[in-house]
Every structure is written in structure tokens, then in C-alpha cells.
Design brief:
The complex is a heterodimer. Chain A is α/β, with parallel strands linked by helices. In chain A, 47% of the residues lie in helices and 19% in strands. In chain A, α1 crosses α5 (111-123) and α2 (37-46) packs parallel to α3 (63-71). The longest helix of chain A has 16 residues, at 11-26. The radius of gyration of chain A is 13 Å and the shape is globular. The relative contact order of chain A is 0.19. By secondary structure, chain B is α+β, with helices and mostly antiparallel strands. Chain B contains four helices and seven strands; from the N terminus they run αβββααββββα. In chain B, strands 1, 2, 3, 4, 5, 6 and 7 form a seven-stranded antiparallel β-sheet that branches. The two termini of chain B are 18 Å apart. The chains are: A alpha/beta, B alpha+beta.
């Protein structure tokens, strides 16, 4: 079973992401919901995770800082990170990809977009 | 994608957000003088911190927020909590503001948004110079957006 962290301070956004994951065939994944980057980092350190889905604009620790922490950690650096944000434009996307983010998706995320982003992950 | 007029940038942002989140169509309100009654208004706001400083406010009727919330969460009105409704209002303004800035700015220009905050008191009167979009859903429920701050408003050309 895949284990996936969903980091977003909005319960609504997490609900949309969970709905998309279910539609694209990841309904049986173990989902760990957290409200900020710090909680996501703590959860990722505590157990093996297969994927991190994160917002950018969050209190306590934002998504970009989470990405930097994950990529700097030898045990976590290979975990794919998908950023799902309302604050993404081509310049931001380029910067995040340079940091090692796997994909950047714009809110509101839809199942077809999620399916496209996760196709390799689902097949693996 | 970017460098749209401010009017189009916001119209596209609101339409895309509400259509994708709640399957709701949005259009200009048929009455430009319409005001949402103060006692029925719920609102939230969010700061734009960079590259210009400004504020986006989103206001709608409590009835529309309930309708949206039921639609999005797929639950009955009796099951809705205030926390869920506030969260949806904040997520809508967050998504609208992000899309608005993406549509407004050149593609190579990054921006920073603050965190949304629910308005606890009556919606304040719009500051002079505020740009206002008076919109409504297909069911004629009003949604108003306010963009304020001299630097942000100066982009309205």
C-alpha cells in the first residue's frame, strides 16, 4: 500500500486532493493529512512515505521550505514531491522544479490533471 | 496566461475557481448598484505581499456560502459546521487570488500571497480607488470581489 502525505492548511483543499486520489485509483493508499510543512517533515521522518503532496502557502513552515528540507535529507531526498498551489505561475514552477520538485499543479486541482501527474507513480 | 487586463484576470480567476470547485457558473451581476445586505454578508480577505502590496476581499451571502459548502463537501446543510464554511471561504479567496495574480503578471514574475483571514466584523466600506467586481452565480447569488492598495490598483490600466 502506498503511503502519501497531504500537506495543506485547508481542510477543503485536502478533501479535494483525497477525492482526486480516490478517482485516479489511489483510494486505498494510506493518507497522512497535515496542516503545514513542519508537520509534513515530522511525518516523513517518522515513517517511510512514497509521495508528498504539498501546498506552498501554509503557516509555520511553507511548502518551499519543506521541499528544501526534504531534498537536503539523504533518507528523504528521493521521495517525489508534487506541489499543488494557488500561487504557482511559470516562474515559480521553474524555481520549484530546479529545487527537485517532481510536478507543480495549480489549484483547483482536477482528477485528469492529478491522473496525468501521478501516472508514473501509479504504475510503479 | 499572464498580463491580462485586471478585469479579465479576475473574471477568469473567479470563473475557473467556482466552476472547478463547485460546478457553478459566474457572471457580472445584472444590477451594478446592488449591495449584499450587511447582516447577510460573510467575507474573507488576503494580502498580496509581493511584487506589489494590496488586498483582495471576497464577500458573498451566508446562504450562498452554505450552498457552496454543501455542494463541495457533498453533505446536507444540517451537517455543515462553521469551521467547514470558513475553510471553504478562505480556500476560494486563496485560489482566486493566486489565479488572479498569475493572470495579471508576466509569466516570469513571481508573487507572494499572505494567508486568508475570515472577516469577523461587518464588511468595511471600500477604500477610495478600490476596484470592485460585482458578480453573481447562475442562481443570481451575489459574489463581490474587492482589490485595494495603491500599487495593486495602479495595475488596472
Amino acid at each position: 500500500m502506498k503511503r502519501i502525505i497531504i500537506a495543506d492548511d485547508s481542510a477543503t483543499a485536502r478533501m479535494f486532493i483525497k477525492r482526486c486520489l480516490s478517482i485516479v485509483g489511489l483510494g486505498d493508499a494510506e493518507l497522512i493529512e497535515v496542516e503545514n510543512g513542519k508537520e509534513a517533515l515530522t511525518a516523513a521522518k517518522a515513517q517511510d512515505v512514497d509521495l508528498i503532496l504539498t501546498d506552498l502557502n501554509m503557516p509555520v513552515m511553507d511548502g518551499e521550505t519543506l521541499v528544501k528540507w526534504v531534498k537536503a535529507n539523504p533518507r528523504l531526498c528521493e521521495v517525489p514531491i508534487i506541489v499543488i498551489t494557488s500561487a504557482g505561475n511559470p516562474a515559480k514552477e521553474h524555481q520549484l522544479l530546479e529545487l527537485g520538485v517532481y510536478r507543480v499543479l495549480n489549484k483547483p486541482v482536477s482528477p485528469p490533471v492529478m491522473m496525468d501527474a501521478l501516472s508514473e507513480f501509479i504504475d510503479s | 496566461m499572464g498580463e491580462q487586463s485586471m478585469y479579465n484576470a479576475m473574471m477568469t480567476a473567479v470563473s475557473q475557481t467556482l466552476e472547478n470547485m463547485a460546478f457553478m457558473e459566474v457572471m457580472e451581476h445584472f444590477d451594478p448598484d446592488y449591495e449584499i445586505p450587511a447582516q447577510e454578508t460573510v467575507w474573507t480577505s488576503l494580502l498580496i505581499n509581493d511584487p506589489v502590496q494590496g488586498e483582495i476581499r471576497l464577500a458573498m451571502s451566508g446562504a450562498l456560502l452554505k450552498k457552496l459548502s454543501c455542494n463541495i463537501f457533498g453533505i446536507d446543510e444540517e451537517e455543515l459546521t462553521e469551521s467547514q464554511m470558513n475553510d471553504i471561504l478562505n480556500e476560494i479567496v486563496n485560489t482566486v487570488a493566486g489565479l488572479f495574480m498569475t493572470n495579471l503578471l508576466p509569466d516570469d514574475q513571481q508573487y507572494k500571497l499572505g494567508l486568508p483571514e475570515i472577516g469577523e466584523d461587518e464588511l468595511p466600506a471600500a477604500e477610495p480607488g478600490t476596484v470592485i467586481w460585482k458578480l453573481m452565480t447562475g442562481d443570481e447569488d451575489p459574489i463581490f470581489i474587492y482589490a485595494s492598495g495603491p500599487a495593486l490598483v495602479a495595475m488596472n490600466q
